[in-house]
Amino acid sequence: MRISRIAAAAAVTAAVALPIVTASTASAASPATAVTASDPCGKVGPYKVHANAATIRSKASAKSTVLGLLYKGHKFTVHKATTYGEWVYITDKSTGVTGWVSGIYVYPDVSTCLH
Fold first, then answer.
1. What are phi and psi of 84, to 5 degrees?
2. Which of 16, 60, 94, 99 is least surrounded by Cβ atoms within 10 Å, i.e. has the fewest?
3. pLDDT mean across residues, the chain
4. Once rounded to an integer, what is the mean pLDDT over residues 66-82?
5. Higher per-residue pLDDT: 114 or 70
6. Which residues, 6+ apart, have CB-to-CB distance to 101 below 8 Å?
7. Which of these, 110, 112, 104, lies nearest to 49 by C-alpha position?
């Protein structure tokens, strides 16, 4: 009985010590897996319309005047966005209309990689 308690205590100690040993080894190996400028991970791609159509408005507000519609197939230029991306200021290249579109419908594609 005494031997099994010692074996169990040794196993618990090894299980607790293992993450500490591997953490120092992993941090030493991190320069080999550093993200370079050519790495596509975390890259923000072009903005796309993720709905059939989005309303183009005169101000960054759902209550502002409607100027037109930005359809899914239309190409557009993004000039700026609000701090958290709630609204995006665009120019629709198909119609020439410039205004604000909700960030719910228009947002950039973002690449994510698992290293």
1. -105, 10
2. 16
3. 76
4. 93
5. 70
6. 54, 55, 56, 57, 70, 87, 88, 90
7. 104
**Contact by Cβ (8 Å): 103, 81:** yes
Identify the H or E element spanning 79: strand 76-81
Query: Contact at 8 Å (CB) between 94 and 85?
Result: no
HSE-CB for 25 with a 13 A CA cutoff: 6
Rounded to 5 degrees, φ, ψ at 51 are: -155, 170
Q: For residues 22 and 68, what is the distance between their CA atoms, to the nearest angstrom?
A: 57
Amino acid at 65: T
- 8 Å CB contact between 70 and 76: yes
Q: How far apart are CA 106 and CA 46, in angstroms?
A: 10
Q: What is the pLDDT of residues 16-47, one digit of tens each?
A: 544 444 444 444 444 444 545 555 666 666 88
